[in-house]
């Protein structure tokens, strides 16, 4: 049986990834973000470090969803992931490594 909680957690983690992507776009990936006392991050943290944390959390949540029996075609998802990478490379070229 699928665990409905896995969808909720996956949605929450997806939103947190989006927030950090937008902060990176707004402030720059390596510019410390303005800090406030309620932040779960250390003072002076950057969107890059926050994004790395949130992507890790998201991937862990995706693993949990899979292990909890979320009924999705995981082979189709993997094929789609590979096709997306190919499409982006075809449109935008091979990424430059910095």
Task: Estimate percent helicity.
Answer: 55-70%
Unreliable residue runs: none
In whole angstroms, how far apart are the ends? 44 Å
Count every beta strand, where a strand is a DSSP E run of 2 or more residues. Answer: 0
Percentage beta strand: under 5%
Please state the average pLDDT score. Answer: 87
Question: Biggest sheet, in brief?
Answer: none
SS element count, helices: 3
Order of helices and strands: HHH
Assign the structural class, choosing from mainly alpha, mainly beta, alpha/beta, alpha+beta, or little secondary structure. Answer: mainly alpha
Describe this structure in words.
7% of the residues are buried. Helix content is 65%, strand content 0%. The chain contains three helices and no strands. The protein has 98 residues and is mainly α. The chain is flat and about 40 Å long. The N and C termini lie far apart (44 Å).
Strand and helix layout:
Layout (H helix, E strand, L loop, with lengths): L3 H24 L19 H21 L6 H19 L6
Helix pairs in contact: 1-2
């Amino acid at each position: 049986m699928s665990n409905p909680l896995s969808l909720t957690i996956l949605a929450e983690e997806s939103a947190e990834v989006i927030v950090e992507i937008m902060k990176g776009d707004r402030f720059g990936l390596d510019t410390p973000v303005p800090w406030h006392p309620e932040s779960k991050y250390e003072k002076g943290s950057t969107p890059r470090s926050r994004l790395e944390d949130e992507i890790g959390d998201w991937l862990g949540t995706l693993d949990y969803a899979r292990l909890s029996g979320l009924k999705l075609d995981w082979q189709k998802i993997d094929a789609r992931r590979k096709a997306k990478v190919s499409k982006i490379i075809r449109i935008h070229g091979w990424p430059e490594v910095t």
